Automatic annotation (TrEMBL):
Pfam families: adh_short_C2. Belongs to the short-chain dehydrogenases/reductases (SDR) family. This is SDR family oxidoreductase. InterPro entries: KR_dom (IPR057326), NAD(P)-bd_dom_sf (IPR036291), SDR (IPR050259), SDR_fam (IPR002347). Residues 11-194 form the Ketoreductase domain.
Amino acid sequence: MAELVDSEHSRVAFVTGAGQGLGKAIGLALAQAGHSVVFADIDADRAEAAAGDVGPAALGVSVDVRDRASVEAAAERARNRFGPIGILVNNAARTVAQPFAQLTETEWDDVFAVNLRGILLTTQTMVPDMVDAGWGRIINLSSLAGQRGGPQVQGAHYASSKAAIIGLSRYIAHEYASYGITANVIAPGPILTEATALAPKDKLDLLASQIPVGRFGAARDVGALACHLASTAGAFITGATMDINGGLQMR
Ligand SMILES: NC(=O)c1ccc[n+]([C@@H]2O[C@H](COP(=O)([O-])OP(=O)(O)OC[C@H]3O[C@@H](n4cnc5c(N)ncnc54)[C@H](O)[C@@H]3O)[C@@H](O)[C@H]2O)c1
């Protein structure tokens, strides 16, 4: 799907939560497509290790997406190394699986701070680079949980924040469309990552049997989709929510 970019179309990509899982896979895919990639994560060691797997075209930085000063410092490190940021992938997220009745305000607020406020802060910090360039790509990770809700996924705070990401992305898409900037959502269903692999095998097998394609997604499936949205070929896709769920939800 994603074409290799030539140097004229090589951009600087900033991927949050890129120390592991989907963020790391998206960063690797963008690097393979010829972009310079900043692997940003609250776990600095993992961010640096992920960047180390790529080589000099990558940089690992520590960032806490909840905190404006931290986001600004990480963006500055990225610019100093590679130049203005053209692709922003908001992938960092967290949750604590909790039944609705036991959800505390602290957990609610923190999940929203990472999953939603993080997108506000990174986008406000990096979109001026894209406006100056007249070109930009913003890709936000939602979830099937944000589309369907449901108790089987990681709690009401997670599902609500992931639903809100779709609304926020559409808002950003509208506001910046005339600057050559697209903003889109990737909504994955079950993808096999370090985190999901921790679930008991019988639970994983049962879930896989319910997915029409008969398996979990692979992180590289999500990386390929992100590359397409980030490419010049993706210019006419904006405000969209791209389902990548093996047919688990069709709409
Ligand atoms: N894996 C799946 O099946 C799946 C399904 C649907 C949606 N998603 C979404 O895809 C994205 C990645 O999922 P994953 O499974 O790779 O998650 P993960 O938990 O493995 O990775 C999330 C990363 O975000 C980082 N992070 C957490 N808080 C942070 C903060 N405050 N600042 C910066 N970084 C922070 C973590 O250190 C971690 O490296 C998430 O947005 C998730 O909601 C994943």
